[in-house]
Predict the structure.
Amino acid sequence: MSVYTTEIASDKIPSDNVIHQRLLSAYHLAKPFIKGDLLELGCGEGRGVELLAPLADSYIGIDKIETVIDSLEKKYPDYQFMSGVFPPFPFEDNSFDSIVTFQVIEHVKDDEGFVKEIHRVLKPGGMALITTPNIKMTLSRNPWHEREYTGDELAALCKKYFNKVEMKGIAGNENVLQYHERNRASVQKIMRFDIFNLQHRLPASILRIPYDMLNRMNRNRLKETDDKLVKSITHEDFSIQNQTEQNLDLFCLLTK
């Protein structure tokens, strides 16, 4: 996957700000749960390294994009980074006290194997944190995702390997919801031209380029329509809440 798709929101593109802040919020919300040796699965461009790594005794970030890993190794020489496709993970059993994996499981073909491996490498008493989009709030098919989940579906998957599963959600305040509803209306205007429901009938590989083009166009349009709102949203506009269908993302806490 190219790092330049709309699937990886940039903190340098103004129209990406709301999505970037939504992704960044997970790292801020994860701070109280971090301890000991920390593994991040799908670290991407290192959005949360500076927030979480200093809270841990050690940090390892793993991602499949080699160019990103090369860049992170130069930027953060005190931490360890690895490139690789998972599952499985290249680690011994009971290796980590904390694991975070944010907006990753929806991209993994073998999601059950992914959760099983998280359980394997987590130390007894350790905690893993998973975030993923809440399908109940999804506006259209995302061809970069293998699947999306309801809270109950993700909890059921995790309970196959973890005895203690706590399902929460990441919600936005009034400003975030205002943006989301404007986004919904804008997406619906685009989707009205999909009279043959091609978004759900065509292979994901064919949809990715038009999806990215339309997604970028839509984000730019939302910024032009209300630049002040797009600029104003920060990670503080998001919070952990109890599980509801209105949460933007699922926030799952797994204890071994």
About this structure: The chain has nine helices and eight strands.
